[in-house]
Design a protein that fits this description.
The protein is α+β, with helices and mostly antiparallel strands and about 110 residues long. It has one domain: Trna Endonuclease, Chain: A, domain 1 (3-Layer(aba) Sandwich), CATH 3.40.1350.10. The chain is built from three helices and five strands. It has helices at about 5-20, 55-60, 65-80; strands at about 25-30, 35-40, 45-55, 90-95, 100-105. A five-stranded mixed sheet has the order 1-2-3-4-5. β4 and β5 form a beta hairpin. The longest helix is centred in the N-terminal third of the chain and has 17 residues, at about 5-20. The protein is globular and about 40 Å long.
Amino acid sequence: MSRAKGNRAEQRACVFLEESGFYVLEQNFYSRFGEIDIIANKGNVLHFVEVKSGEDFELAVQNITPSKLAKIIKTANVYMKKNAFDGDFCIDALIVTPKAVEIVENITL
């Protein structure tokens, strides 16, 4: 996927999250372990959101591998330590297709 296509998917994701009651805190947070696309807050829960886009839901969600998930978890821990966050959090996937945007919460379960 091109960076421009990825940026468009992330912008759609941010709009979707904000319309769904989330407050976007940060985009593209990097650590030595990897990147988190979007960090948002809703109802006192911190959400680390991985954005995946594709022609359909199944193709997009298949790109969240165990290796990618491990990098997200490590990077989320870096963010929480850096920001002295000690509260509830979850790791979500936001799937962007040409026809829809759908969130899948708690993808680590």
